[in-house]
Design a protein that fits this description.
Helix content is 30%, strand content 22%. It is an alpha/beta fold and 231 residues long. The structure holds 5-O-phosphono-beta-D-ribofuranosylamine.
């Protein structure tokens, strides 16, 4: 089986990055991580990646005179790494039109809300403020508009009456760690395709565990959300 070469872009702690690295350890996962790139030299995720045996690079946005120059250097670093797909995982920079066009339908992002609701920062605070009962997370293809683009997969997460932004954020993050590898598998395997700014996934590629859309097959025995005891 050929595995798609994936680079991960981070800015911080890198827990979603770690979830992707772990998923790619499985031999029958259709992707491998070839590089982790941070725009912040001190990002804790860089250490985690190195300890996992993944090559890292830093493209420090503060050292560039313009956004275009930063985007061009990032693009070059991705191409040098041989990346075919890019996964943004807590990457806190908006990318310009040329960069986004160059990686169109080959760049994913994860966001901690059920898009198109609650784009931007402080999602959990805003969800709690609004009294929303169900929130979640979304993996989508990147477009120039922040937190917008064709949706690959979503997981719903209940909001509890006594939730704080931290407790809700932890519950959503747990769902993110399960959702992102499933979404990457759908994209890397070619099962998920963008058609007219929507993602089409053939019915045969879906298994419908509750709270997930589309449902995903297990990456290996016991690795799926249902087998892992989540619902
Ligand atoms: C996650 O909540 C992700 O959805 C958002 O930024 C956070 C990154 O966390 N885009 P981590 O660095 O993956 O731990």
């Amino acid at each position: 089986m050929s595995r798609r070469k994936v680079a991960i872009l981070i800015s911080g702690r890198g827990s979603n990055m770690s979830a992707l690295i772990d998923a790619c350890r499985c031999e029958d996962f259709p992707a491998e991580i070839v590089r982790v790139i941070s725009n912040r030299p001190g990002a804790p995720g860089l250490d985690l990646a190195r300890r996992a045996g993944i090559a890292t690079a830093t493209v420090d946005h503060t050292t560039f005179e313009s956004r275009d120059a930063f985007d061009a250097a990032l693009d070059q670093a991705l191409r040098e790494a041989g990346a075919e797909l890019v996964c943004n995982a807590g990457f806190m920079r908006l990318l310009g039109e040329a960069f986004v066009a160059g990686w169109r339908d080959r760049q994913l992002n994860i966001h901690p809300s059920l898009l198109p609701s609650y784009r931007g920062l402080h999602t959990h605070e805003r969800v709690l403020h609004d009294g929303v009962r169900i929130t979640g997370c979304t993996v989508h293809f990147v477009r120039t508009e922040m937190d917008a683009g064709p949706i690959v997969a979503q997981a719903a997460v209940p909001v509890c009456g006594d939730d704080t932004p931290d407790t809700l954020g932890a519950r959503v993050l747990d769902a993110e760690h399960r959702l992102y590898p499933e979404a990457l598998r759908l994209v890397a395997s070619g099962a998920a395709r963008v058609v007219g700014e929507k993602v089409i996934i053939p019915a045969g590629k879906r298994v419908p565990p509750s709270l997930y859309s589309p449902g995903a097959e297990a990456a290996g025995p016991g690795a799926g959300p249902e087998q892992a005891g989540h619902s």
